[in-house]
Amino acid sequence: MLWVEVSKDITIMPSLIKTPLYQTHVDLAGKLIEFHGWLLPLSYKSIMDEARAVRERVGVFDISHMGEVQVYGRNALELLQYTTSNDVTALEEGRVQYTTLLNDDGGILDDFLIYRVGVERYFLCLNATNTQRAVSWLANQALHFPEVEVKDLTHHFGMLSVQGPNAEALLMKTTKTDLSKLEYYQFVICSLGGYSVILSRTGYTGEDGFEIFCEWRETPALWKLINNRGKNLGLVPVGLGARDVLRQEMCFPLYGHELNDDITPYEAGLGWLVTLEKEEGFIGCEVLVNQYRHGVKRKLVAVETVGRNIARQGHPIMVGSELVGEVTSGTMSPTLNKPIALGFVNTEHCQVGAKVKVSIRGNMCDAIIVDKPFTQSNVKKKPKT
Amino acid sequence: MKFPDDLKYSKEHEWVRSEDGTAVIGITDFAQDELGDIVFVEMPEVGTTLNASDSFGVAESVKTVSDLFSPISGQVIEVNISLENEPESVNNSPYDKGWMIKIKMSDPQEINSLLSVDEYKAFILESK
């Protein structure tokens, strides 16, 4: 299960890393949990209310646990092109690319964003759980190239995410930069209230929104500024619980649930992140070429269960007495007001509309495979004219 | 966090209010806070016979699921059907609107073996 027991006083565990906003979360009476070695807020008041606030107004998240890595040097492009599945040569300066880092078997070591900062300079935003091994992996691969450096900057950057229909209006109150011109998956280095930041039109919620990298020590001041400016726009602080609910409504995968070392991009529905036609090839591409030609044995699907019980990670998916798959994530959708789940199902049973059963704590519950995503995306793909 | 004086408590974080041979049962303020947003409460059928410590249902919250245990033996005579549409009452009003089941007690002496409010508070502090 994703969430550890919250009843123990984990704030005294010395091994856990505190984000620059730790004291802020304590002052807000946030419910703190351990998340991949970090101490983070699960929620401040109610997961469901926080998720609704993001869909209807705007929310701000502390995501300082995310990894930041700089890749730079004459061979930076070649290193990333060789180690990631997407076509990095197509990434222009000022834009962001979603991609996967694969092992030799095509299994996903991490899914992350690449920011092209300069001609020979890239900035990666990685999952907290994978940052260290992804850095090691990239540094090892970098040995094959004469001029490229991989540097972990995770503890230099704080990171905030501002998401929701009012996100642009809110951040426009803090900067002279015209954010209405910033397109989806574009970024700008700018000043928010005097603090220098990298700001991208990206997110993990399906709403319009921005992710902000700032200096570690300036994060509390920036959080305060955003909260002050957001008061009359209905801004609320949002914890990891609502972040998980929102991404499930959008069927965005989460590493450790829908993605791991044994799952390939084609299985996870991330085939759009794979460019098989790269001249020099890339790590894992042989397996992917084979899967592209012959298909995959299982696929990630969206599942709606009948009734109010929630299917959760590890619950078996059945057709008759045959085990055909397994749930990877599940929650109650505040937008649809019904339980939703994601899971892997054998390809012959994964058609939309297929009736299956989910074994929820021993009870066989009727379920149906539905279209992805569960709720519509409201991300802003075109700039205002 | 509130723990009314006139209730009895179990180590599974249920409360019991005794009313003329009937036991009204719900989960405590501590339990609802631990579970977070409760989105579904699975209830027993009226008429079900329960022994003390039997599971009588399940509470689903966004982040987890928890069995509900009856601290008292007897027959279920009523369930709180309003929780079907308003499960959040368990969070907002755990001792009042969020009650779960009423049991006709088969042994009214059983309630004396449950924790008093002070014993329950001490138990929570210990388990932290």
Mean pLDDT of chain B: 95
Strand composition percent of chain B = 25-35%
* Number of distinct helices of chain A: 8
How would you write the strand order of the largest sheet of chain B? 1-2-3-9-8-5
Overall outline of chain A: globular
Q: Tell me the number of strands of chain A.
A: 20
Task: Extract low-pLDDT stretches of chain A.
Answer: 1-7
Kindly identify the CATH topology of chain B.
Answer: OB fold (Dihydrolipoamide Acetyltransferase, E2P)
Structural class category of chain B: alpha+beta
Unreliable runs of chain B, pLDDT <50, ≥5 residues? none
Integer average pLDDT of chain A: 95
Give the C-alpha Rg of chain B. 13 Å
User: What's the structural domain tally of chain A?
Assistant: 3
Helical fraction of chain A: 10-25%
Q: List the total number of helices of chain B.
A: 3
* SSE run of chain A: EHEEHEEHEEEHEEHEEEHEHHEEEEEE
The CATH C-level class name of chain B: Mainly Beta
* Largest sheet: number of strands, sense, barrel closure of chain A: 6 strands, mixed
Radius of gyration of chain A over all CA atoms, rounded: 21 Å
CATH architecture of the largest domain in chain A: 2-Layer Sandwich
